[in-house]
Design a protein that fits this description.
Helices cover 54% and strands 19% of the residues. By secondary structure, it is α+β, with helices and mostly antiparallel strands. Helix 1 packs antiparallel against helix 2, helix 5 packs antiparallel against helix 6 and helix 8 packs antiparallel against helix 9. The model has no long low-confidence stretch (mean pLDDT 94). Bound molecules: zinc ion (ZN).
Length: 269
């Protein structure tokens, strides 16, 4: 006889849905967020509550991992994100790129990056309207770069990847010194199998950032795309850059095997 039992969330409320890249499995997935109570069940009947009502934040459709937060902390996080988002918008309207978090003595943080992260949480709490109102307040002057970035991020969460790529393209036209739109756009191009476009975007990231850890992460993906597109001379140059950025890679046998193979195919070995 099979006894079907276990635990799972029941009586879901305040549901929200969005798409994006999973922080746990890294894949492009759908995410459900909701308030629920975890019950012990037997034959699919909820028998014993195992916890208070909690917020299940971004349950991934592919790996089923979610963050669980008590409702009070979750509400606190959302209020805080809304207050700081308003500060970020004010700073951008004043022509500033950075702002100070409320009640925090730390360094000024990048307003555009903050707003993208905040939008992700606000979507997951059903506050899509708040995001739309922020976008509306960024129509002028120096807010326009962030407006395009935010629109692109929101289209990504709506699952409209080509529209998102178009908004990132607009962002690169407004401010062509920043690497972020190329990074996000390249990731979406790779996801939609536009590998040559993704290569071009990631090459822009390598040129525009001086942050070694960003270059390393992007370069490791770039070299794989270049190999898939049989761009061996370019892949060889990327490998050289990666070894420059992180010399210990020379001790990694499988990495060096990849380097040797590409150099041979490029006619450089
Ligand atoms: Zn996942």
């Amino acid at each position: 006889m099979i006894i079907i039992w276990g635990s799972r969330p029941y009586f879901r409320k305040n549901k929200a849905y969005q798409k994006g890249f999973c922080a746990n499995c890294g894949r492009f997935a759908g995410f459900s967020s909701y308030d629920a109570i975890t019950f012990f069940y037997l034959y699919y009947i909820p028998l014993i509550p195992l916890s208070k009502r909690k917020r299940f934040h971004k349950m991934c459709s592919l790996c089923s991992v979610a963050q669980e937060l008590d409702l009070e902390s979750f509400e606190g996080i959302i209020q805080n994100l809304k207050a700081n988002s308003a500060e970020a918008v004010l700073a951008l309207s004043d022509g500033e790129k950075t702002f100070l978090l409320e009640g925090d003595d730390s360094e000024p943080i990048d307003a555009a990056t903050y707003l993208l992260g905040a939008a992700d949480w606000l979507y997951a709490s059903g506050n899509k309207d708040f995001c739309v109102s922020i976008v509306g307040q960024l129509a002028e002057g120096s807010g326009r770069f962030t407006q395009s970035m935010l629109l692109a991020y929101m289209r990504t969460m709506d699952g409209k990847l080509q529209e998102a790529i178009d908004h990132y393209n607009t962002a690169t036209q407004i401010d062509n010194t920043r690497y972020e739109p190329y990074q996000y756009k390249g990731t979406l191009e790779a996801e939609t199998k536009q590998l040559e476009a993704a290569i071009a975007s990631y090459q822009q990231v390598m040129k525009k950032t001086t942050d070694g850890s960003v270059q390393l992460t992007i370069g490791l993906n770039l070299v794989e795309f270049q190999k898939q597109c049989k761009q061996f001379v370019e892949a060889s140059a990327t490998y050289d850059r990666l070894l420059e950025l992180h010399p210990p890679l020379a001790n990694d046998k499988s990495f060096m095997k990849g380097v040797a193979k590409v150099k041979k195919k490029a006619g450089l070995a």
